Amino acid sequence: MKYLIIGLLVLASGMFYFMHQSNKASAERLKQAEIAHQQKVKAEAEAEQNKLKMAEEAKAQKIEVDSKIKNLQSKYQMDYLEAKKVVESPEMSKDGRAFYVGLAGRWSDAFKVANSTSRIALSQPVKDMQQIKRDLEGRATETACEVKLKQELLKSYDFAIDGFLQFMQKNEILSTGFINASSIFQENANALIEYC
To answer: Which residues form a coiled coil (predicted)?
Structure first.
């Protein structure tokens, strides 16, 4: 009987030991599950904060773009989507800027010379203006803004050249109208240049 009691005690001790180990393993699993749950909650909170931050940044960027669009539309008559394409287009390259600066200088000089030349000697200044226009036509555009700028400059140059041709043909009224139209398109191009 003594061995039976000792056997039962050993068996009971073994059961308590295995139950203790099982509880210890369960507690460890629960602890790891709790840590994993906390990490998941933290990650979800961070993701939500990032999403809110990105939404705020997108909203601020949209406000800035809308402001630029309204500013552009106040200077130049164009619809919202066209203005948005111009505002959101990447900046023109340094080579592009240098081209347009050089072109503007050449055009300004040619226009001044043509404007102060007598009717009979106007053919060479007009020829110079036509060459400047051809140089612009040959320029490959890189951005949506540059495309619009080029279109406006070409219209301006066309009207100016036609104005001087009409002046050569003694059509002063048509000449004045064409020169005025040229200056309007030139102002449009000047409004666009700061966005390119």
So the answer is: 30-75
Burial of 88 (0-12, 13-18, 19+ CB in 10 A): middle
Cα-Cα-Cα-Cα torsion 102, 108, 111, 115, nearest 10 degrees, comes to: -160
Percent helix, strand, coil in the chain (nearest 5)? 85, 0, 15
pTM of the model as a whole: 0.67
Of 57, 65, 64, nearest to 86 (Cα)? 65
- Boundary residue ending a domain (84, 110, 125): 84
Decide which of 16 and 189 is more confident: 189
CA distance 91 to 141: 12
Using the 3D structure, point to which of 56, 84, 112 is the last residue of a domain: 84
